[in-house]
């Protein structure tokens, strides 16, 4: 008998690592360790044991990864919806400000007073802005026909109230 044949089989360290990391919830580490352990055990021709632990670590690791992914999908949806809501609001308020500024410029240039009728043909709106465009979140704007008093908005969004709050936070001097 040679020395090698006399050695007892020893347990694969990676198989133990796979089981332990799997139970700790480190899915990816468990899967990687489990795969390497299984391949080393196979090549060792009996010198390494721990196949059961490696397989358990692998299964637990894959289940953990699957659960994490299942949890992440709805979170991504919630995140995307929140982002869309914020960007709709920002776009809407920018539109309201653009129209308001255009009307104030028109008011000053024509020496008009609040309450005077707006001749929209003479109001210069920024490029890409039109009176007929809807709010980014949907719904038509209500556009005043007369010049509003300072602090009043010429454009009103159907989402002006809560929860969307499509109204500039502070427009008392607009
Ligand atoms: Zn809006």
How would you summarize what this structure contains?
This protein is mainly α and 174 residues long. The chain is built from 4 helices and 4 strands; from the N terminus they run αβααβαββ. The site of zinc ion (ZN) has 6 residues, from loops.
Provide the fold topology:
Layout: H1 3-6, E1 10-11, H2 13-23, H3 27-43, E2 48-49, H4 51-109, E3 142-143, E4 155-156
Parallel strand pairs: 1-2
Antiparallel strand pairs: 3-4
This protein binds zinc ion.
Residues 92, 135, 137, 157, 159, 166 line the site of zinc ion (ZN).
Domain DUF4190: 14-71
InterPro entries: DUF4190 (IPR025241)
Keywords: Membrane, Transmembrane, Transmembrane helix
